[in-house]
Amino acid sequence: MILRGMLRTFLLLTLLTAAPAMTETGAEPFIIAHRGASGERPEHTLAAYERAIDQGADYIEPDLVLTSDGVLVARHENEISGTTDVADHPEFVARRTSKTIDGQPVTGWFTEDFTLAELRTLRARERLPQLRPANSRFDGLYPIPTFEEIVKLVRAKEAETGRRIGLYPETKHPAYFAGIGLPHQAPLLDLLSRYGYQTEADPVFIQSFEVGNLKALRAASRLRLIQLVAGEGGPADEPGTSYADMMTAQGLRQVADYADGIGPAAAMVLAPEGPTGLVERAHQAGLQVHVWTLRMENSFLPAAFQRPDDPQGRGDFAGYVRAVAGTGVDAMFSDFPKQARQALNPAP
Questions:
Q1: What whole-number distance in Å separates Cα of residue 247 and Cα of residue 259?
Q2: Distance CA 111, CA 67 (A)
Q3: What is the biggest distance separating any 2 CA atoms in the chain, rounded to whole angstroms?
Q4: Does the pTM of the predicted model rise above 0.85?
Q5: DSSP 3-state helix, strand, coil percentages of the chain (rounded to 5)?
Q6: CA-only gyration radius of the chain, Å
Q7: Backbone angles phi, psi at 58, to 5 degrees
Q8: Residue limits of the GP-PDE domain (predicted)?
Q9: Which of 63, 94, 106, 247 is the most exposed place for a label (fewest CB within 10 A)?
Q10: Domain residue extents for the chain
Q11: What is the pLDDT of residues 154-190, one digit of tens each?
C-alpha cells in the first residue's frame, strides 16, 4: 500500500508539473497578491501591497471591514488582536469584549468599536511570527490602511509603471456588518465609482464567502463578482446551503446567475490523486476559477510538495504552483506573488 501511494504521488507530480501553465483560453493564470506580498511584509499594510505591485502582481487583495464611523479599512478579520498592537494600548483595555461572528464566539478587539482616528493610533504586526519571523522586524511600523489609501496607492503605481493594477477586495462578514448598521455595499461602490471603477471592463473583482451581498452587488453594479467557497461548511448568510452543493453542476449554474467566477480552496481543484473536475464544471457554467491560497511554507503545502528537511521550512512551491496551474485555473491567490510568477515562467 505504501509503495502504491508513493507511485501514485510520483505519477501525479510528473503529469501535473509537466502540464502547461495556461488557462483554457491559452493565457497564463493571473496572480492575485493575497493581502499584499504577505509572505514578506505584515499583511494588509501599504508596504505589503506596494511590494506585491513592484513584484508584478496583477491584482492586490484587501479584506475589508468597517470602523464605527463607517470607513472601510483593510484587516483580515474585524477582530484585530493578532494583527495589531491594540493589546499594548492601555486606553483601549476596556474595549476588549466577546461577540458572536457568523455563529462563532470571538473575544478580542473589533474594528467596529473604534473610530478611524482611534484605529490610526495602532500599528500592524505580523500575524504568523512563528512561520515568518523575518516579517516581525516590521512590527510597529505601519498603520492600518483605509481602502481609499489602497486605491490611491494603486493609481500612483499605475502612473509610475504604465500598467493597470487590479483591485480584488473581499467583503468580510457582510451580513454581520449590515446587521449592526455598517453595510459594505454603499461605501464600497461609492468609493470605487469615485475612482473610475464602474464596469466589467475595469480591473476589479469583488469577492465574498456569503451570497446575499453578492446578489445585492449584482443588482447595483456591473463590476465583476466572485463567489468564494471552502471545502467544508457553507455561506454564513444561508445556513441551509453547503458549499459542496454549490459546486455541483446545477449549483454552479445558479452561482453563474449572480457571479462571474468562483474562488475555491486549491485543494478543491487539485486532490492528492489529481484534478477534481471542478475547474471543468465551472468553465462549463461560464464561471472563472480563482483558487486560494498558495504559500511556500510546508505547513500550507500538500504532502507531495513538502520538503521536511528545508531549513526555512519551505517546500516545492514552484512545483505546486505549476501543478495547480495545470488544472486550468484562471487565477491564483498567493502570499508570494514574485515566486508564483517565477514558477509560471521559470528561467531558462
A1: 13
A2: 5
A3: 61
A4: yes
A5: 40, 20, 45
A6: 20
A7: -80, -35
A8: 29-344
A9: 94
A10: 2-76+144-344
A11: 999 999 999 999 999 999 999 999 999 999 999 999 9
Lookup result for grid cell 516590521: 138
Residue 238: pLDDT band by 50, 70, 90 thresholds? very high
The phi and psi torsions of 342 (rounded to 5 degrees) equal -65, -35
Tell me the catalytic residues.
34, 76
The answer to whether residues 29 and 332 touch, using CB atoms and an 8 Å cutoff, is yes
Q: What is the DSSP string of 224-275?
A: EEEEE--SS---TT-TT--HHHHTSHHHHHHHTTT-SEEE-BGGGTEETTEE
Helix (H, G, I), strand (E, B) or coil at 196: coil
Total residue count of the chain as it appears in this document: 348
- CATH of 2-76+144-344, picked from 1.10.10.10, 3.30.465.10, 3.20.20.190, 3.50.7.10, is 3.20.20.190
Tell me the average pLDDT across 259-267.
Answer: 98
274 vs 324: CA distance, rounded Å: 10
Which DSSP string do the residues of 131-150 spell out, in sequence order? T-GGGGGGTTS-PPPBHHHH
The answer to whether 281 and 247 have CB atoms below 8 angstroms apart is yes
